[in-house]
Automatic annotation (TrEMBL):
It comes from marine sediment metagenome. This is Uncharacterized protein.
Length: 160
């Protein structure tokens, strides 16, 4: 992740501000996803909708960014980068993991507040054995999820 530091001189006092550029965060997430693609035998992500290797079932479109601001349930067509913001806390539903082996979502929170976005697994399904994931309450927090055909697995998560 690229961090930028700015210095300003106000009334003889030098202050330093820290800024993380959202474009650089998206590029860093794409780099992580390309590394994941290489792990599964792909050359790179971003050339359209996957899989190229039907055996691994890798399916992810890094060129499309879905923007979500309110509670809803994701669709399979929204696989890829999902930019989230929350004027108030809400839950975001995942589609079924069953029959969607290899599908990925990279969810990241873009706004600067602590409103929690909870990710809900479909029905009785789970996310790493839990019914929900509640780690998206800070700006640039992210989670990368992959379906193994039974549940959603967290491949990576973090925050600034």
């Amino acid at each position: 992740m690229i961090h930028k530091f700015y210095q300003t001189d106000v009334d003889g006092k030098v202050t330093t501000a820290h800024h993380v550029d959202e474009k650089n965060v998206i590029n860093e997430l794409r780099r992580i996803l390309n590394d994941i693609a290489t792990t599964f035998g792909q050359t790179k992500l971003g050339d359209g909708f996957y899989p190229k290797d039907d055996e691994q079932g890798l399916e992810f479109d890094t060129n499309r960014i879905t923007i979500i601001t309110v509670a809803e349930t994701l669709t399979i067509r929204q696989c890829g980068l999902v930019k989230l913001s929350a004027a108030s806390p809400y839950a975001l539903g995942l589609p079924t993991a069953i029959g969607n082996t290899g599908r990925y979502y990279c969810l990241y929170k873009s706004d600067d507040n602590i409103n929690l976005i909870t990710i809900d697994a479909h029905g009785e399904e789970t996310i790493n054995g839990q019914p929900t994931y509640a780690g998206l309450n800070y700006q640039y927090a992210f989670v990368i999820l992959r379906s193994n055909g039974v549940e959603w697995i967290i491949l990576s998560s973090g925050f600034k």
